Amino acid sequence: MTPNSSTSPINVALIGYAFMGRAHSNAYRQVGPFFAPRRVPRMKVICGRSGADVERARKSLGWEESATDWRDVVRRKDIDLVDVCTPGDSHADIAIAAARAGKHVFCEKPLANSLKDAGRMLAAVEKAGVAHMICHNYRRAPAVMLAKQLISDGALGDIRHYRGTYLQDWMSDPAAPFNWRLDRAKAGSGALGDIASHSIDLARFLVGEITEVSADLKTFVPARSMPPTDARRGSRRAPRSREMRTVTVDDAAMALVHFANGAIGSIEATRMAPGRKNYNRFEINGRLGSIAFDLERLNELEVYFESDPPHLRGFRTIMVTEGSHPFVGHWWPPGHIIGYEHTFVHTVYDLLEAITNGTIPTPSFIDGVANQRVLTTMERSAKSRRWEVVK
Amino acid sequence: MTPNSSTSPINVALIGYAFMGRAHSNAYRQVGPFFAPRRVPRMKVICGRSGADVERARKSLGWEESATDWRDVVRRKDIDLVDVCTPGDSHADIAIAAARAGKHVFCEKPLANSLKDAGRMLAAVEKAGVAHMICHNYRRAPAVMLAKQLISDGALGDIRHYRGTYLQDWMSDPAAPFNWRLDRAKAGSGALGDIASHSIDLARFLVGEITEVSADLKTFVPARSMPPTDARRGSRRAPRSREMRTVTVDDAAMALVHFANGAIGSIEATRMAPGRKNYNRFEINGRLGSIAFDLERLNELEVYFESDPPHLRGFRTIMVTEGSHPFVGHWWPPGHIIGYEHTFVHTVYDLLEAITNGTIPTPSFIDGVANQRVLTTMERSAKSRRWEVVK
Amino acid sequence: MTPNSSTSPINVALIGYAFMGRAHSNAYRQVGPFFAPRRVPRMKVICGRSGADVERARKSLGWEESATDWRDVVRRKDIDLVDVCTPGDSHADIAIAAARAGKHVFCEKPLANSLKDAGRMLAAVEKAGVAHMICHNYRRAPAVMLAKQLISDGALGDIRHYRGTYLQDWMSDPAAPFNWRLDRAKAGSGALGDIASHSIDLARFLVGEITEVSADLKTFVPARSMPPTDARRGSRRAPRSREMRTVTVDDAAMALVHFANGAIGSIEATRMAPGRKNYNRFEINGRLGSIAFDLERLNELEVYFESDPPHLRGFRTIMVTEGSHPFVGHWWPPGHIIGYEHTFVHTVYDLLEAITNGTIPTPSFIDGVANQRVLTTMERSAKSRRWEVVK
Amino acid sequence: MTPNSSTSPINVALIGYAFMGRAHSNAYRQVGPFFAPRRVPRMKVICGRSGADVERARKSLGWEESATDWRDVVRRKDIDLVDVCTPGDSHADIAIAAARAGKHVFCEKPLANSLKDAGRMLAAVEKAGVAHMICHNYRRAPAVMLAKQLISDGALGDIRHYRGTYLQDWMSDPAAPFNWRLDRAKAGSGALGDIASHSIDLARFLVGEITEVSADLKTFVPARSMPPTDARRGSRRAPRSREMRTVTVDDAAMALVHFANGAIGSIEATRMAPGRKNYNRFEINGRLGSIAFDLERLNELEVYFESDPPHLRGFRTIMVTEGSHPFVGHWWPPGHIIGYEHTFVHTVYDLLEAITNGTIPTPSFIDGVANQRVLTTMERSAKSRRWEVVK
What we know:
Four copies of one chain form a homotetramer.
Chain A: E1 10-15, H1 19-35, E2 41-47, H2 51-61, E3 65-67, H3 70-75, E4 81-84, H4 91-100, E5 104-107, H5 115-128, E6 132-134, H6 142-152, E7 159-167, H7 184-187, H8 191-206, E8 210-218, E9 223-225, H9 229-233, E10 244-246, E11 252-259, E12 264-270, E13 279-286, E14 289-294, E15 300-305, E16 315-319, H10 342-357, H11 365-384, E17 388-389
Parallel strand pairs in A: 1-2, 1-4, 2-3, 4-5, 5-6, 7-12
Antiparallel strand pairs in A: 7-13, 8-11, 8-17, 9-10, 11-12, 13-14, 14-15, 15-16
């Protein structure tokens, strides 16, 4: 890859238009006005299987064209960047095809549904010499960036403990219907790949490589009712008797972990914690201090320094909304908080700048593979019922 | 005003391009993708005094044209809505001219720098039969809307106490330089009009009309240095010796208030509270419960119900991020928080819908005048050193 | 008064055995084991009007004797210290008699039901040359002591704002029956003297003298039912039809205040804030920092320093449970919190040490009179509806 | 054991006079005035190895006699209850001797330094037919009692997750000197037995039996300097060069756990978490709700109910200070918080009442053995690096 001195727009194709498609679209719309990247994104085409649905999405999300065949789209000459927002079972096919067509690739997490696929994806983008990035957007919450900076600067000293929990509650009720995220074939795994993967990424970003794990997976609700076919199609006919479907993924995942640098930790994810909506929380204890973060209050970072005078030590709640904080100067004055979707804008900005610079952004597919390796080892450990080395 | 059955865009002219101009521009860009109003806004023209600056703003904020003479702009045939984001001393002239030209008017707070001007503005829009709205955007934080709903439903019973504080700290340091917000001629008043006005608006929205006040205004730092002329012009010549300028507004404002419904309260605003960045907080106590809100955690509402079983009573922290909460369904899933600027999107959405429906949105200029009347009475009380009736 | 080099016990007579009597008794029992004062208190006699009740109290609270006539008790040769825990209407008589008999006097707040009585009490103790103290125990919460220390050391710079609220909810329900605290003849005033007096004491302790006030008093529930006579006597006969009695004190008190040092503030007390149980909270903003305290979390102090690096500023929550914090070293290791009653133990300890040293402890009756003066001025201002000078 | 209808005092012998000795002594002093047990404790004799030290403790803590040979003490005819507050390595000898002498036994946690010893202790007390209790005092924090009540009543539905962390920071600094708690021979284990044992007890109390564990133990600081001999003896001679001593216990312990009822969980304890002083926290998620507790705010319980209306759901912070809450009615009015030591008073009260009733209080030595079994299994799992069944 060579830096591209041009200031021409970067033409984007987005594959998928559901939750993540909306979040990525917003990022492409907002990155220009607030971050003024040297090369702005041009929202060229959005692609999905249902022509009518994707056309509706096109209109509401602001794309120029809609399409239904991703194979055509990723080969289009006028596309620079392919953004993969589909369920995990199609990531590999799309990303590899895009890389072979010479496109930069931005892919939702987890990178793939298997470590093998993830490896193939990495090989493909490296062979093609394109930029590649996995969307672990929470790295770019300003508070997380500040945490990273504090750790890198040694302000916390040697890290000893990482405690990551990602808690949600939307599957707590056994009456909540089946959906694709409960289907192993589609989603690869459950809470593990969907949300523990974020906690693993933050652990790797902030503490370092995970070397071994002892993990546990649990499915509390083994089967759920299918939503009535009609509902699925938007019709209003009376539902037939409810068909049950086996849940083939975990509802909850827990693991003890060891880090290469000697730190120890735990990672837990569940969709069964009533009251926790998007509680992606970590606490890190180092020799010289501690930090804590909670995504539900993403504008805040709690920090404790042993270097404060003994009678004045305490966790301080930093409003990470100052102009001097990472990314914040592009938004609003101090105390004017930002939201969930801003983390995607930051991610996309860094991706665009990397493409312009001819560099590989982070987290890249290398991180995606490393993350997948941890996920896979956790599944292995949950089966073997013993510590397993990440490899 | 008659409802306009057309679905043609609403053409907007924005006067002013500073902080509020950026926030309003963002709202016009975002309201379409997320709220799908029947008539979308078309960002026609942005207007400011400096041609070069406004052209830069045009590009970054996404407007079609830039202009430097607001008198021309508000008369343009192709403009439907004039959005006034200038300092308070020009609100009346612009809004009245716009109304006379038959344009709908959206105006930043406070409505004007005097009650007389505010009254003239209201008269003008009413005579013209146009839609008019004052931008007290915090009404439309979902948590504030939920608070309103609880009060309207009687869930808190008769309201007894309102306690509103709007605390910031950006003027705490006496070395912070002079700016237009410290100039009575430009800004009308200091913390009073700038931020206490928001607290007054929330009090009126949630509790009702304020009937009398006992107020106090204080200027802690009586003079501040001018920023070097060169800095003001962006040049790099060495600054001359620093000129001092008298601060002609209040740094802090406090008031006791009585409400028409028998409730009592206090309102305080200051720019001198270290650590409080945008701490627009209120607590309301009713016969049957209490609520508390803090803009720095705008996705949360604290609520206490006397109707809970005695051993289970407690302030609950509601994450106001559910699809069933006001406005939230248009954004993200539960627990995925929104930010400061979203309150403007909600406000603009309701404004556009009101224009489409041929109705007057709230808060309208009627509220702007009522707010101004309270502000004016507070100034009068601060001078007379006694309770004054709001009139 | 001369220091008493003896290490003989200090013989105490306690007048009153209700809520405050229990809290003071506990302090006398606990001060020895934890603080080892040079002269320990000897719990000689407890005095109340009803012989049977006071004898029960004697047994459960650990006093040697009980008595029913305080006039006899305060004259007893073997009494060194008279502790006045009765309703406010009898403070003056008891304290003055005790002083005349040469006893040290410890008195619950407010000092008296009138400024005149408070002045007579001060004159009496000064003439007698005895130690005198008013029980504003919250000064001696370790977190409040730490706040005082920070302010005295200049760590907050010049103080600009004091914001004190003391919120409770036990009178919120109009069905809650009448009691002596609602009777002006007994209690002097309502929320004002009962709890605003604490907030005034903290303001005076931490910020300085209050020079003028604009106050407001409100009675939301003008009459309440008497508890059935039988219930008052503990009998079980059926209650007669409920007699209503006029509430002659305020349910809520609010004031704006000016301090001698140029700071401004507000003080509010109410018994009508559902969910606030004992919410004695203050926030103080100085030129260089801020502090906040809430009695419901009395082991914590929130502190913000402008001197922290800009990107690391935030309110830190100090667990005031370190051995280096005021009083704490006498209790438990860090993080092992103390409770409400410990503030009385600290107060009594300092009282005993002052008596041993022959000094006057603080807050003394001088503070009690000053506090009463503010209370009286607030009542005057509430009537005159204007600012009144404290004098 | 038969109920003892007498109301004679229960004569207590306390073995040990350090931190726990002080906390237990306070409980014996306070239980009478606040709880009025039918049989009050009589603080007969305190016993320790150093005659001078124990005599000082006797005076300050309020015991009638001091002694230096526990073997004599536990055989005294006038002793009813032996309270064991020594390091873990002497628990078994003392408790067994006491039981054989027919005394009721109250013992600090962990019950012993080995499962074998714990079993012998249980056998001894059961054979002797005396009352036995292990001091897991945190069960009797009112908020924990409320949590238990909610779970027992089914208010949380089936429990799915337990997340217990007990974090402290007093060993974080490698320069902190060696002490007996770091010596396996004395203490049995480190953070595991000292504080994880509390978290295990709360898990068993609130969720149920733990059936299998995967655990990890870590020693971050392998050796520490001995405090100078002189310091240990209180002399002031200059210390000699510092001798290092190997730390033979864990600094931190982590485990995944399975419960008999199908719930899963994690338990972690460390003395290396800067800023966490006594952070004994748990969160429990059930099918119908969640609760969270933190010992540093022990007067509060956070509770979330799925049964609340969807738009009003949120974690409520219950101030567990109402008269209707467990134990609270014996202390102060609502909002007047209690402290750490009160949990011991509650524990001792229930112990005294059980002795009076002739019943076995909980947690008994049966619980102590069960707890020890989990601790032992965790140690085994940490070595085998696999899940181990608790047996």
